[in-house]
Amino acid sequence: MGSHKYIELMTYSEVVAVSGHVGHFKVKIKKKARYVDETKCTGCGTCQEKCPWQADNEFDVSLGKRKAIYTPFPQAVPNIPVIDCEHCAYFLKGKCRACEKFCPTGAIDFEQTDQIVEVQVASIIVATGYDIFDPSPITQYGYGRFDDVITSLEFERLVSSTGPTGGNIVLKDGSKPQSAAIIHCVGSRDENYHEYCSRVCCMYSLKHAHQIKEKTGAEVYQMYIDMRCFGKGYEEFYKRASDEGVNFIRGKVAKVTDIALSEEEKGKLIVVCEDTLLGNMIRVPVDMVILSVAMEPRADADEVARLFSLERSADGFFLEKHHKIDPVGTMIDGIYMAGCCQGPKDIPDTVSQAIGAAAKALALITKGKVEAGAAVVGE
Amino acid sequence: MGSHKYIELMTYSEVVAVSGHVGHFKVKIKKKARYVDETKCTGCGTCQEKCPWQADNEFDVSLGKRKAIYTPFPQAVPNIPVIDCEHCAYFLKGKCRACEKFCPTGAIDFEQTDQIVEVQVASIIVATGYDIFDPSPITQYGYGRFDDVITSLEFERLVSSTGPTGGNIVLKDGSKPQSAAIIHCVGSRDENYHEYCSRVCCMYSLKHAHQIKEKTGAEVYQMYIDMRCFGKGYEEFYKRASDEGVNFIRGKVAKVTDIALSEEEKGKLIVVCEDTLLGNMIRVPVDMVILSVAMEPRADADEVARLFSLERSADGFFLEKHHKIDPVGTMIDGIYMAGCCQGPKDIPDTVSQAIGAAAKALALITKGKVEAGAAVVGE
């Protein structure tokens, strides 16, 4: 995609103003200084090897470290690093420039500044994604208080071969868990946080259960309200996880505690929940607790909505033009949207919607002209 | 859509042969004789009024009647009727022709014959839809044996203002139900029939519950395994139905019977099921039972797959090129698919996918040329 002749990628950039109307939008984009000349950099990685400064790796949800000059995540497109001024010794103390010294193509450029670029476009697709719910406010789950209560995203990095542990599922002390509990609907289907269902958690929770069993052989428990395996092949995967011996407990978790009531619970995290099928409270002692956290609108959704004159639905996501017949349109002609900025959705549904949004934009362009009287943005 | 200058609709037609490859498909289409000249008919409806012959209305799942000359469903595009030879007196007995006599534009043409048309197309989108599961084999549910055990599709017609009762929800004897049970997962999530989840039944069952409460005030029970309210606004609708007083019973239904064990059960249909939350068997006497039947691949899926060289997944639906990154593609370049022929899905997801498939076809055409070496169909 990065090398397609009709696609111009502007990464590390941000839209700062939009005006005009369908067919004729003017978009101001801030290209942030990355201090690396994109035309010279070959992505060889020498600068990152030589950089002596470190910071928390955001992509690994701070579970690992990265350098002050770094590529944000594996397989980034384009494969060009950026200097993080807040952790770079040259920006902080005025000396180092190790990256510059070792760069074989002379691509490091400490003189770069942010630039404002203006482009004219016929249509716009908003695909700003989502944030994940921070489970800290649900204090009874102990996130932040117990080392081995982690979020599903943290688990995702833990199990990834490019993650901080090289794909080993381990507890904070480095040991292998012998049991794990996966708690569904953390922040979803909860009137105190988000009333909506986040649509993807059941399936990634099943995947996580399968990965734990496969990689560690640990006993796995899933505490759920409803198993929502609605997509193609999903119910079949649920059955497979069940056949693999994953324990399904239907019920809402009351709390996670380390106060043991028996010998067997000592040194464990105890998940206390109502088993609605048994009809009573149960205590499940485990080594690791994974919280399947909700998807939520991005923190900057308000700002982005204002910038593009979008409306938002009651759940905070961007509002589609018509729920059934125009799920990729917005109230502004020529502005479309795709993916989780419109609401939680999984990869196949996101890809279908994204192709759809591209189709709408393409149809508009091939048409060659647009009707007058369209809504105007930012003027 | 019917009047768009770049769209040629061929209704009442059937693809009979496909050959060629991406960019150059030859498609043979059988245009079935409708015995009405499309260029002359204005859709005034006089022929249907005057026709003295009736047949079961397939669109109303045989709950109502239609004439021998008829428009298959309300808002059909184009709004032009067709003569059903199997019920037309002229075709059966050689006389009548009332439609011809009364047609103000002379559009009736008994001399029409089936025609084979050949078209050249660059790409093809397969969107053949689905069939609904016939619940008769699940004999314990009593479909076909008890008048007031109906399918969700029959209920859909019953509640429609264009349906056989004008939108009145009534029992077979014409009276209003005072209670109804909606049984989920009939033919879905069932190893004896379809292992997969049909994705849409939970939500239409909630809609049906809401409609019954609103239109009749009846007591409504839903027997479900998991409530799968995954889409935008779906969980909120579930909560609303719950607030309206719909009774949710988590459990698989064992049988529907008319053998009363108490005074209160007399004259009722009794739904016998395990309430997995209470942990025991319960008996729910109701007036009407609605079976939320599965979506399944069309009966002619094998034939269509052969015609277009499509593959089928284990569930019998057509196989997409890649589940995540190409959900609208097939193994044959230039042939795409959309909607339920690929797997059960609801309207927003179908529309997104359909726009996506159109985009793929459009992208191919605007490209102007295709790479050599593509897979060939039917040669």
Automatic annotation (TrEMBL), chains A, B:
PROSITE patterns: 4FE4S_FER_1 (PS00198), 4FE4S_FER_2 (PS51379). Residues 32-61, 79-113 form the 4Fe-4S ferredoxin-type domain. SUPFAM superfamilies: FAD/NAD(P)-binding domain. InterPro entries: 4Fe4S_Fe-S-bd, 4Fe4S_Fe_S_CS, FAD/NAD-bd_sf, HdrA-like. Transmembrane segments: none annotated. Keywords: 4Fe-4S, FAD, Flavoprotein, Iron, Iron-sulfur, Metal-binding, Oxidoreductase. GO terms for molecular function: 4 iron, 4 sulfur cluster binding; metal ion binding; oxidoreductase activity. Its cofactor is FAD. Belongs to the HdrA family. This is 4Fe-4S ferredoxin-type domain-containing protein.
